[in-house]
Amino acid sequence: MIRLTSITRVFHMGDQEVRALNDVSLDIASGEYVSIMGPSGSGKSTLLNVIGLLDRPDSGRYELDGSDVTALSETEQARVRREKIGFVFQSFHLVPRLTAAQNIELPLILEGLAPAERKLRVDAVLDAFDLTDRATHRPAELSGGQRQRVAIARATILRPTALLADEPTGNLDHRIGAEVMALLEALHHSGTTLIVVTHDRELGARAHRHIAMRDGEIVGDEK
Amino acid sequence: MKLRDTLSLSLHSIASTRTRSLLIVLAMALGVGAVVVLTALGDGARRYVVGQFASLGTNLVIVLPGRAETSGGFVGAALGQTPRDLTLDDAQAVGQLPGVRRYAPLNVGTAELASGGRLREVTILGSNADLLPIRHMALSHGSFSGGAAQIVIGSVIARDFFPDGDAIGQRVRLGDRRFRISGVLSKQGESMGFNTDEIVIVPVDDAQALFNTETLFRILVEANSRAAIEPLKQAMSHVLKQRHDGEEDVTVITQDAVLATFDRILSALTLAVAGIAAISLAVAGILVMNVMLVAVTQRTAEIGLLKAIGAPAADIRHLFLAEALWLSLAGGALGFALGHLGSWAIRLAYPTLPAWPPTWASVAGIATALITGIVASLLPAARAAKLDPVRALSGK
Ligand SMILES: Nc1ncnc2c1ncn2[C@@H]1O[C@H](COP(=O)(O)OP(=O)(O)OP(=O)(O)O)[C@@H](O)[C@H]1O
Ligand SMILES: [Mg+2]
Q1: Which ligand is nearest to the CA of A41?
Q2: Which residue's CA lies nearest to atom 2 of ligand 1?
C-alpha cells in the first residue's frame, strides 16, 4: 500500500526553480498494475524515485504499508528499499565486472545471507528467468533482453512488494520489449505491485490503471 | 552486509583495476621497504660498533694517565708538580683489588723486528699473559706465559717471516734485544683500527727496557661481572689517588659507559632514519587518496546502483575502506619482503655489517602502511557514501 499526500519535490537550477513534483497525492493499493505516462520532464522519474525512497520529497507525507517512511533514517530507508522495493531501469545498471549470477546475488549479500543460502536462491532465480546458461557471462556478453532479465531477477530476488520500472523497454526493440513486459506482468500476477513508467502508448495501455502527468502534476488517473 | 562479503567484494573490484591497484601497492611497498632497509642499515651499524667494543674485552675498566676532565684541572700543576706517571706498581696495586678477575699493564711502541735477514717496523704491546684473555685474543700455536724474553707474534708477521710455519722457538731480534717466539696469534683482523695480525706482544718488563721507560700507557682491568664494574672503578680511583699522594692525576674509564653512549647515538640515528623513510609512506598515502577519489568518480553509477538495491551509506563506506585495507596490506607485505631482500643484499655486499632489520621496524613499517592507507581512504569513502543515488545512477 503506497499513499502519497501533497508530495512536492523542487529542484534548483541556478536561480531557477523546477517543481518536478507539485503537490502530488496518490494512493496505490497492493497488487495494482499502474502505468505512468506523460511528456518528457513531467516528473515521472522523480515520482518513481520518491516512491522507491531514492529521493526525498521537500514536503508532503509518504506512507508505505501503513507507516510513515519519509521520517526514517538513511539506514532504515536503505533497508526498506532492499526488502520492499525492486527497481528496474531503462539502462539496466548491471555492474560490468560481475557475472550475471553475481549481479543477481548482490541484494542477498547486502541482506547478509550466508553463501550457501545465496547460491540456492540465485540458482532458482536463474532457472526461473531462463538464464542458467548465461550465469557466468558478464553484462557485456549478454544481449539487451538478457541484461534486462538479469536486472529484473536482481530486483525481485528478495521478493519486494513493489516493482518500479522506469522505461524498462526504452533500450530494447519492440519484440524483446514485449517479452520483458510479459515477464514483469508475470511477476505482477504472482502478487507484486507493478508501476511502469513508459512513453509507449501500447505498453502503457496494458496496465490496469493509467496515470497521466504533466508539469509535475497528475492530470489523469483512470482504470 | 557481512564483513566477509565486504572484504571479498572489495577484493574483486581491486582485481578488476589491476594497473591502478599495482601502482598503489608498489608505492606502499617502496615506503615500507625503505623503512625496513634503512633501519637494518642503522641497526647494523649500531651492532657493528657494539661488536667492535665487545671484541676489545668485556667488563673492562681502563686506567689512563692524566686527568681527562675539564673541571678543576690538575691541582698540582699550580704547585709546580707534574702529574705522576702510571707505573707497574700501580698496576699491581690495582690488580689486588676485590672484584678484579684479571688485569694487564700495557705499553705500546714500535721497534724493528729482524730475523733471518728480514726486517720490519712492528707495533709492540708490552704486557703480561692476561692481556690475551682480556682482549679476547687467542693463540693458534704455542703459548704465552709472560716469562722473560718470550714473545708472541701476529699471524701476518708469522706468515711473512716464517712461511714454512715453523715460527715457534725461533730466535728474533727486536731493536737491540733478543727474543724467542713462544706463540703465534690466531688470525683476527682489524679491530678498532688496530690490526692484531701485525703486532708483537712482549713481556712488559722487556717492553719498558726496549722503550727505555718506567711508565705505562694503560692498565686494563677485567671486572668479575658487570655489577662489579662500578664499585671497582671507585676503588681503583681511590687506590691510585692514595698512591699518587692524594692527587687525582689518572682517568679511570669503563668501556660500558663509552659503549652505552655509542649505543644511544646510533639507536637515535636509526630511529631518525626510519622516520624519514616513513615520510615516503605519507607520500604513498596521498597517492592512495587521489587514486581512490578517481575510483569513486569512475564508479559513481555502480555506487548509485548499490544504493538503489538497498545498500546503506555505511556499506558503501566500508567497501572503499576495505579496498584501501587490501591495498595497504599487500603493499606492506610486499614492502616487508623487499626490505628483507634489500637487507640481505647489503649483508652480502658488506659481510662485516650485520644489517638485520629489527622486528620493531618491520612491524612499524607495515602498521604505518595500514594506517596511512585507511586514513587516506576516509575522505574518498565518505564521499562515495554521501553520493545522492538518483544523481549517481544518471552518472552525474
Ligand atoms: N537532479 C536534478 N536537478 C535539477 N533538475 C532536475 C533533476 N532531476 C530532475 N530535474 C528536473 O525535474 C523535472 C522532472 O524530471 P523527471 O526526470 O522526473 O522527468 P521525466 O518525466 O522522467 O522525463 P523523461 O521522460 O525525460 O524521463 C525536469 O524538468 C527535470 O529537468
Ligand atoms: Mg524519466
Answers
A1: 1
A2: A11
A166 lines ligand 1 (CB under 6 A): no
CATH architecture, range A32-42+74-222: 3-Layer(aba) Sandwich (3.40)
Burial class (CB within 10 angstroms; exposed 0-12, middle 13-18, buried 19+) of A136 = exposed
| pLDDT at position B369 | 87
Residue among B21, B300, B309 with most chain A CBs within 10 A, to mutate: B309
CB pairs under 8 A between A and B: 67
pTM: 0.75
Backbone angles phi, psi at A155, to 5 degrees: -70, -25
Which residue from B minimizes the CA distance to A48? B390
Burial class of residue B120, CB neighbours in 10 A (0-12, 13-18, 19+)? middle
Beta strands in chain B, from DSSP E residues, in sequence order:
60-65, 100-115, 118-127, 139-142, 150-153, 171-174, 177-185, 190-191, 194-195, 199-203, 218-223, 250-254
Domain ranges of chain A: 32-42+74-222
Can you name the residues that pair with B219 across neighbouring β-strands?
A: B63, B105
B339-350 burial: b if 16+ Cβ within 10 Å, else e: bbebbeebbeee
Helices B3-16 and B18-56, packing angle to 10 deg: 100
B12 touches chain A (CB under 8 A): yes
In angstroms, the separation between the Cα of residue B310 and the nearest Cα of chain A is 4
Give pLDDT, residue B191.
62
Quick check: CB of A9 below 6 Å from ligand 1?
A: no
Determine the average pLDDT of the residues in A22-36.
Answer: 95
Q: Which of A32, A57, A33 shows the shortest CA–CA distance to A43?
A: A57
